[in-house]
Amino acid sequence: MTWGAYAVTVVLAVVSRLPAANAAEVPLEARLTELTNMFGKRMAVLEAEGNTRYAALTNRYERQLQAILKQKQQNGDLDAVLTINTELEQLAAGKPGVDPGRFLNDSKDIRDAASNLMVSARDGEAAGAKQVVDFATNFTASLLKMQVELTKRGDIEGGIKVRNTIKALEARESLQHARKKLSAFEEESALAAARGQKQKRHDDLVAGRLGPFTLKPSPKGKKTPPALKFAVAWDRLQKTDCDYALFEFFENQPPENILAQVADKPDAERIRYLLYLIFNKLAVTSASEQLKLFRPEDLLDTMRATFWPEELYPPRADGSYQWTACASYLTTNTAFNIFQIGFDKQNGNVIKHIYTYRSVPVPATGFSNVPASSHLSRHASRW
Prior knowledge:
Elements: H1 3-16, H2 28-75, H3 78-92, H4 108-152, H5 156-170, H6 173-207, H7 230-239, H8 244-251, H9 255-261, H10 267-279, H11 284-291, H12 296-305, E1 310-318, E2 321-330, E3 334-344, E4 350-361, H13 375-379, E5 381-382
């Protein structure tokens, strides 16, 4: 039985023992005390299980270090021996470090052992925190049902006592700590997923999987893709950037006709369409003029999420405007497919300039110390 199911079973058992409204008064305080004690015991068990799991990880880490120590000692590697002995002393004192970065200058086997401990410990903590939060959530949800039942029977005072018990359980330090841990792990996972998506888009752009497309006649004996309907094409545009039928559809549709049909669509969708035109060189000038009608922040958000994920420098003042530039992808010394905008933050927050460049050299010190508006135009290759 899971902890959540156990919590529901225990609390519903207490609820089922509540008397009818006309029965003698029930010692509710005693039952709530029983539940509170049960809650505390289960939380202690979960904490002890987490400690046991972590102890098993550190024991395995210690065995790995001992094996590496033996090898390094046989090889006469004094620095490695001293490093490992220090780490073993920390383990013996109950203070293991889990940051492999401190072994940056040491051999790969030492770094790998520390890295494995860090990943396993983090995953174990996340799983343990989720167990605690799930158990507490189910437990207090069952208590809430008890509160509702008492209120329905007219026992308002009893309902208040149950509510106060719920508040006391929710305020426990161990539960608050688990909730914070779980929230931090979930946020870290979301950021990692976002970084992964950005990296995939970067890889796709470098590999040419996201266009621009080169028009070629259909291979002999093969039919061209069927023409798309507008609604299908628009929906597909919001989901993918690499689709030849989509490219063929928008290539043959005047932008003003498309924009007239999507006037009621969200700004992000219309911006994505205009950026699609620019990225695939279908209507660079007219699309750039249309983009000036949108808020700079909205344009930048969509740029970074689609064809220009690499920010060369964040918006910063240069003259009377704020300037920023993004690239489709970067190599060691060159940024490719640049999109630069200048906007007037002081007077209406409107976009004034949009420039596109094929490539630009990356300065040795990056773009942080060069004029935001002029560096690209002096050194970049135009489309």
